[in-house]
Amino acid sequence: MRKVLAVVLLVLGSIVFISAAYAETTYKFGASERIRQEIWDNVIDLKTLPPSNGLYDRNFFRFKTSLWGGADFNKDTGVFLKLTSEVYYNLGPYRYPRDKKGNFTHLDENEMVVDNLYIKANNVFGLPVDLKIGRQDFLGPDMYGEGFLIADGNPNDGSRCFYFNAAKAKWRINENHNVDFVYITNRFQDTYLPSWRTAIEDSPTYYDKKRILNTSDEQAYMVYLRDKLSENLSVEPYYIFKKEEEHPLGPPTPELDLNTIGARALYQMAPWTLGGEFAYQFGDYDGGRDREGYGGYIFAKRKFADITLKPEFELRFVYLSGDDPDTDENENWDPLFSRNPYWNELLIYTQIFEVVPDSAGVPGYWTNLQLYMAKVTMELTPDTKLALSYQYYRANEEAQPLANRAAMFDDGKERGHLPTLFLTHKFNKNIDAFFQYEYFIPGDFYNSDAENAQFLRWQLQFKI
Description:
Blueprint: H1 2-19, E1 26-41, E2 58-72, E3 77-90, E4 107-108, E5 111-121, E6 129-136, E7 164-174, E8 177-186, E9 195-197, E10 206-207, E11 210-211, E12 218-228, E13 233-244, E14 256-269, E15 272-285, E16 290-303, E17 312-320, H2 347-350, E18 369-381, E19 384-394, E20 414-426, E21 431-442, E22 453-463
Antiparallel strand pairs: 1-2, 1-22, 2-3, 3-4, 3-5, 5-6, 5-9, 6-7, 7-8, 8-12, 10-11, 12-13, 13-14, 14-15, 15-16, 16-17, 17-18, 18-19, 19-20, 20-21, 21-22
């Protein structure tokens, strides 16, 4: 706690000191509280593994609290700080955490962490260059595409935080063309900034009493261009180099150097939106084994704004390569920094036990799949929206499971069917809520005894 207070005081002191030199300084502060309940039914192993594996159904609450503040010294420079804590209350039958005596305690106080801490400087030296350096999110206006490769820098803490430790320079060439140069350094466990934590004696999300954030230490360099070629067409080519260090836990996996070259295209002509993205990956592991893969998606949307409920229909196809066991190289698609709930929440957990050496048990390692999706979004009221989707999944290669999890899989390539429902409502500018339900019907990719799975979650969020 003293370390956190020291960082906070240092940042606040710096703000006061720097702002004294700027008469234009403006301050902004805010807070949010997010309340969630999640219920998992057969989600992780589809009830194919014995209870001795500890993969029980789950029912728990999550209470996420965030406090943030910033100072803009003028229209071009500023600093921002955000602190976040998320407390879990587990109802069972999943029985973590445990105290020193091994007793189930229900309450996991978790950690308070420095969620964001960065400085920004626009129009540096009068040039069309903007800088942002420090712990930051690549979401909202800072998102790259729709997050196909860059979305979450620390996937193993769920949706508590999404930050990247990064330095970003944006060169605004003109109003239709710009390019970002980005350096990323993320860690297996946070070593850059302090955190307040409660020592968990027996929890799979902690190692040596410190929260696990990732599969390993990671670094990346990215060049990302945004080009508006016409009033309707935009193209976003990119190159990403990522280094994934040797994994501290799980199956031993050597260091990986991986290159990703790709592009995203978007064509908009109301009421139609057409888009897609494709990327090719190549690299090698320490020791000489090659890594190669490719992935992408295409979609089409049409909005009917003039009829009741203003429905928008979407068709989407996704392809991510899988590892061919008959070759010496690894052909699995590497999701880089998008190991998060992309198309749904439920399937990210069933992926844990597939043999993808670089996943090391982290949920959301999207690879070896084809997705066929139909989706409709409707406005029930101006403040209430309902989204329904049907998702059909296949695998490109048969499952290659971890040895002690082989009972979960079979030799087919049909992953299964997944209908979803997502209902949102905005009460006012400070309060919003949603209800989410997903139902998975497994195919022959899994054991014939695999049972259907359900994921249910509701949320209430307050912001000031």
